[in-house]
Write a structure and sequence with these properties.
- The protein has about 450 residues and is mainly α.
- The chain has a single domain, classed as Hydantoin permease.
- It has 19 helices and 2 strands.
- The longest helix is centred in the N-terminal third of the chain and has 33 residues.
- The protein is globular and about 65 Å long.
């Protein structure tokens, strides 16, 4: 079992904490702009299908590994398969979390800057055509951008240093419901805008001509990123779960919440995009450019804008907590006396590694790796290469290294799931998920355009 001092206080606490990990900027910031760049409704449909048939089975698998081992991401594979090459899976997850947080903290810093701008009133009465320029000027200032990134990392380390129950769980319990309520309010208002119909059509009406191998790869990466799977985050989180936790139900609840938040985020953003003449493929700046324009048209808009960026910051922090927790847990290894020191040390190292990503929109804006900035390169490497690769290794590990009876026992522990449901999950994890990941990788690596051919 996991260290007795490090367990979730309740079943609901586990769901809130994992939801806090998954429902962060992946759904609110990343989904709208990736969807905008990848075909809108077609991307959303592919994302939904991949989440249900690949993401959820993998999520349950990570839950089972963590709860059964009671160990962190690295020790889980070492304990369950001694002297196996699969031990690299845990290390891959920890390294990937480190890299993700290095660029993720940049976005967290942006959220801090925009929160400050909204509180000071600098976003009020901002001409529509200047909202993008304002964003560009703000993040291009190296002092502001680096200072905000560092402060974001400090907040993250502060909470993780407090531990699982007193830190991560307590913050997630009130933050996630608040975020959902505000998103519903904003989506309801956005649907009254002139461009609402066009925005809804773009988000929900699939155009399969826009679907190609890259769309599938981005949707796969977004699905894994949004559920925090493929990097053993959920292995570590479920190591703190009790045997009474219903793992299949918890995974499905998390997936539904995640898709709902992504949908709400899209309904908040895209009506405003078409109402105010923005392009849906604006990229990472999309939410920062569009939202101030939307709030400017609303009664009490400045107050709501402040509230949104407060919750946007909390959403960023919730995912950051989980990413840093996986790194810290792997090195603390149950010795909670080392937690505070490890939290601050790794937080500082992550900040240093993230500096080039922060400066990608300023001092290093002319530095490219291929056709991508340093920020985009790290994002692409983690979301579209390392996370799917980690997911593939986990799917290969589960049926080959864990006894099937043990898997079924963990699957059914705390739930009334029948054998047929277990067989379906086992089949998906053993055959369908790895096959799908390999096909997407091969399609992209060799440019075979197999996926494009399927949808034509």
């Amino acid at each position: 079992m996991a260290n007795a001092t490090e367990q979730w206080s309740s079943k609901l606490g586990f769901i809130y904490a994992t939801a806090g990990s998954a429902i962060g900027l992946g759904a609110i910031w990343k989904f709208p702009y990736i969807a905008g760049q990848s075909g809108g409704g077609a991307f959303f449909l592919v994302f939904l299908l991949l989440t249900l048939f690949l993401g959820v089975p993998l999520l349950i698998g990570e839950y089972i590994l963590g709860r059964h081992s009671g160990k962190d991401a690295i020790l889980t594979y070492k304990t369950l398969a001694p002297r196996s090459t699969f031990q690299v899976t845990g290390w891959l997850g920890v390294v990937c979390c480190f890299l993700i947080l290095s660029f993720y903290s940049v976005i967290g810093g942006w959220s801090l800057l925009y929160l400050g701008s909204s509180v000071s009133g600098q976003l009020s009465n901002l001409p529509l055509n200047e909202s993008q320029d304002y964003f560009g000027r703000l993040i291009a200032n190296p002092g502001l951008a680096l200072g905000a990134q560092l402060f974001f990392i400090l907040l993250t380390a502060l909470v993780v240093a407090k531990g699982v129950q007193k830190g991560i769980e307590q913050v997630s319990k009130w933050m996630i419901p608040s975020l959902l309520v505000l998103l519903v309010i904003l989506a309801a208002y956005s649907l009254t805008l002139d461009g609402a119909a066009e925005g809804i059509q773009y988000l929900l009406a699939p155009d399969f001509s826009a679907v190609d191998g890259e769309t599938i790869l981005f949707a796969l990466g977004q699905s894994f990123f949004a559920l925090s799977v493929g990097v053993s985050v959920m292995v570590t989180f479920s190591s703190y779960a009790s045997k009474q936790q219903n793992l299949p139900a918890s995974a499905m609840t998390l997936a539904i919440m995640n898709v709902l938040v992504a949908l709400l985020a899209g309904l908040v953003i895209f009506p405003g995009v078409f109402t105010f003449g923005f392009q849906p493929d604006e990229g990472p700046a999309l939410i920062f450019a569009v939202l101030p324009a939307i709030f400017e048209q609303i009664a009490f808009g400045q107050i709501l804008l402040i509230a949104f960026f407060v919750l946007f910051l909390f959403a960023a922090l919730s995912t950051a907590f989980s990413l840093l927790e996986i790194i810290v847990a792997a090195f603390v290894r149950g010795n909670q006396d080392k937690r505070k020191q490890a939290s601050w040390i790794f937080g500082f190292l992550i900040f240093l590694v993230g500096i080039p990503s922060t400066l990608s929109y300023g001092v290093l804006d002319d530095f490219f790796i291929g056709d991508r900035s340093f920020f985009d390169t790290v994002d692409y490497l983690t979301s579209n290469v390392l996370m799917p690769l980690g997911a593939l290794l986990i799917c290969l590990f589960i049926p080959r290294k864990i006894n099937k009876d043990i898997l079924m026992q963990e699957f059914q522990s705390g739930s009334n799931a029948g054998k047929k449901l277990f067989v379906l999950w086992y089949t998906l994890v053993k055959y369908v998920v790895p096959f799908a990941i390999v096909i997407v990788f091969i399609d992209q690596l060799f440019g075979l355009n197999l996926i494009t051919f399927i949808f034509e």
